[in-house]
Amino acid sequence: MHICKVFSNFAAEMSRNLSLFVVLGLLTVLFFGLDICSGSLWLWPFGDGLSPMEEQILRAIRLPKAITAVLAGAALSVAGLMMQTLFRNPLAGPYTLGVSSGASLGVAMLTMCSVAVTVFLPVAACIGATLVLLLVLAVSRRVTSNVSLLIVGMMFGSIAGALVSLLQNFANPDALKLFIVWTLGSLSSVNWSDMSILLPVWLLGMAVVLCVLKPLNGLMLGEDYARGLGINVRRTRLLIVLATGLLAGGVTAFCGPIAFIGVAVPHLARGLFRSSNHRITLPASAWLGACLLLVCDVLCSLFTYPLPISTVSALFGAPVIIWIILGGRR
């Protein structure tokens, strides 16, 4: 009976927001189509008028780029939502625990030690992000406070950032340029071979997220309340950190750091759906993040020289953060 009641409540809540989910789905499909069409060369894939070269551009570049935008937007938004819930901090994001800094350190060590090969950049970023993730996971098993975990994660990020600055100080201009280009973020660098790694990591991260869906609602009211509900806070925290590391680390390794999406989208989802229930806000954040990053990618491709994805995403995300700080959302 209890399970039936839970499912009936969930169905009722979903039905109230069904129209919004439908609209988000349609917008995502629309911008996905625009993303594969737009660029320095406009392509219309819905017909027989494409030349062999245009078909190759569509299959090898445009399609994986659009799919990457969907995966990256959803992953960063969901990771940001979990971090904001875990730390009860509206400005927390997917890179709060230093995963991005670890990835940057891995890329910096590769590019600035005179062994830079572009094809190995995702490998170096994966190694750096994984090492930081393992350190944070080890710490999360020893500390009892989420605040302590937050501070330790930030310190790991600061150490990695300091090492990156040290490497930059001794790097040659070509290596420094390659590193800076990576830090600006790009969706077009992901090919089908990379997708065979990114997609399984994304699926694994989302599977872990589903395991903590119910405890996330308990954590919103604090650790003591969650323990009173019978939630294993330490295990939940470990799974949240693992899921965030997989989602944010995987995206960062292949796309570079993408600013503000993970911080801003959860707030937009809560405001749009008028709910804090993670059964609603989690899929809403995923859909909204995917749609928003597709919009950013379409805007990037409108220029003669495509803009870095983080530049456009910051234009969307920064106003949301300013709104939060100024007290637009209590």
Number of domains: 2
Number of strands: 0
Share of residues in helices: over 70%
CATH topology name of the largest domain: ABC transporter involved in vitamin B12 uptake, BtuC
CATH homologous superfamily (4th level) name of the largest domain: ABC transporter involved in vitamin B12 uptake, BtuC
Number of helices: 14
Mean pLDDT: 82
Structural class: mainly alpha
The CATH C-level class name of the largest domain: Mainly Alpha
The name of the CATH architecture of the largest domain is Orthogonal Bundle
Order of helices and strands: HHHHHHHHHHHHHH
Largest sheet: none
C-alpha geometry? globular
Question: Could you write a compact summary of the structure shown?
Answer:
With 330 residues, the protein is mainly α.
Account of the protein in words:
Helix content is 75%, strand content 0%. The chain is mostly helical and 330 residues long. It is globular and about 65 Å long.
What is this structure's SSE topology?
Elements: H1 2-16, H2 18-37, H3 52-87, H4 99-111, H5 121-140, H6 146-170, H7 173-183, H8 192-211, H9 213-219, H10 223-228, H11 233-255, H12 261-273, H13 278-300, H14 309-325
Highlighted features:
mainly alpha, 330 residues, 0% strand, globular, 2 domains, ABC transporter involved in vitamin B12 uptake, BtuC
